[in-house]
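If it is no trouble, can you show me the amino acids of a protein and the tokens describing how it folds?
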Amino acid sequence: MKTIKMCKIALLIALSMGVIACGSDGKDGADGVDGQDGAPGLPGADATAPTVSASTATNIEFINHIVADGIVTVEFGVTNESGYAITGLTDASIYLAAKTENGMQRSRDGSVGGNATVGGSSPTEGASLTLLDNGNYQLVAPMAGVQADTEALIRLQVGGGDIAKSPYVLVAKPEMMHTSTTETCYACHVDYAESDLKHAGYVALNTDGEVDFVGGCMVCHNNVPRDVAADGTSLTTGGYAKNTMQMLGHINHQNFEKDFEPANCYTCHAEPVMNTSLAGNGCADCHNTSSSSSYAQVISNSNSSEFDAREFHLNKSGLETLQAMRVSYTAETTAPQKNDAGIWCTTMSLFDISSGTKTQVNIGSLYNKDGDTTGATNVVGKPIVYAGAYLHGYYNESIVGRFAGHGSDEIKTDNADGSRTHCFPSPSSGFDQASIMATARISLSYPGWVQNDGETSMSFTAYSDAVDQTTGDIVEYERRLAVTNDSCTTCHNSETNYHKNGAYNNGGVDCVACHNNGQDRSAANSAPGYGPMVHSMHWGIGNSLSGAKTDADGNNITNSAAALNAINCVSCHADGIDLNAIPNQYIRAKAFNNGDQTKMASPITANCFACHNGDQSLNHMELNGGEISAEKGSGNDGTWFTQPTGESCATCHAEGRSFGIEKYHKFER
């Protein structure tokens, strides 16, 4: 403590009280003799910050560390939830993975890397924890497999008993350890530490208090797998876990059932991949040394400082072609209008925008109704394998059903400018009170394309403005879309479609052409509309109804979305949800009613019930005006979509309200 002379203290007090005279007419007197220094003051309650011996949250402030032969020393400070220094700490554990020629490695037998514990039920012999001063400690950890020049990934955790366990903290980390990032992982595994999923408690922070998801995982899931004996039993040599980090990324993620392309390395690897050896980490998980001579040749001929495996995989898998096609074309269609015969028509067009200007593509000359891809290798993205249009009812900024679609009397005309006109002589009844709009979908083939329910095509969907049937005025097409452009493509990264030529791009906006308020799709009886269907297929009853995965007896089992935390709505709804903005308008709901086409659901209830489908949840919704089986009515006058619902969900559950949805679901990262 710094010592201050008592006379100086008196002077400071006098100054603060304003008792020193000023403006005197007399002359200043001679300085007096300095008094003797007073004794240093004893520390009191006000002289030092308080210390505590218990905490409900424990924070580590890293000071320094030293790695020497056979021993690791770490100095750190510890505070509680209020920032007070903690004394009486007796428990700490430290883990070290070493950077080797095989990547990061920590063996269970301590031959590479190591770990040590002070306190607890199994303390490490020779390990010690010493209080240096209030809240600062020195941990000394013997590790026989560690040398002074070891580049180390070191993870520290302290606490136990009355002192809450701290988060794991990475106090040291070698550079260029991995090229995937917390951000790429958290695109799907949002705030993993706060979930109830496997190993959530092992998520580590860096010394700045930020999550280092990949680094934390690699303390145990190293680059080197745990050795396995000839009889299949696990040994204590090799790495710590049987699943290496690259296996978790490259192999386990291939369990995604639908439209996940492992070769799209950019999805996870934010930086260029370090390994350029076919036999090295990562590559060997998918390729054996003789599995691809062309790949091995590229690797051997590449300059490791320039070769980017991400780009190579994109090119080799054909994804580079698909990505180029995705940004090279755009589709449009006109607002519906009646031709000279009084028939409703719409005219679709496809434009090549790769040069920066719109150049119309001739649909008629490039369309092949049989899906013949002859020549597709030489002319990327052609011929056109699907070109279809529909007319829809449009009311209150919602699509309320199909006014006209494919039929035996549909008239298709290829125009001289390359556009195609679709006319519909037999429109449906029941849309007298709706405006009319059009959608058009054009799908392209590419090298390797196969005819399969439009799943693998490169598709472009266009939405027109609507026309008021009574006045003929144009009504701008607007629809609330509460997801972001990459909500679907973060996981469904293959650049292809789900089915029926509906792409995942731009938040799956293509899907709304069929899955809307009035189309009354069943989706395996999972949920109606678009939002409810997506919720159910990922985390509701539709998760197991999708049929993508079956057990040995052929029964459906849950799809891979079940491995994600359903409360993390921010994965798709990055900008939150405004329940007050949802149109108060029914959704046709045969999916909730065993295929009964006379039933409707109120919109918020439909979205919530898609996941919260228990009797108690439904009872709560119905008590507050929600419905999943309201009667549509027997008439065909279209009044069902003009009727407001009675649900009052937003009153309590809109964001910011007493029971706001954000209190139960995460809309922020």
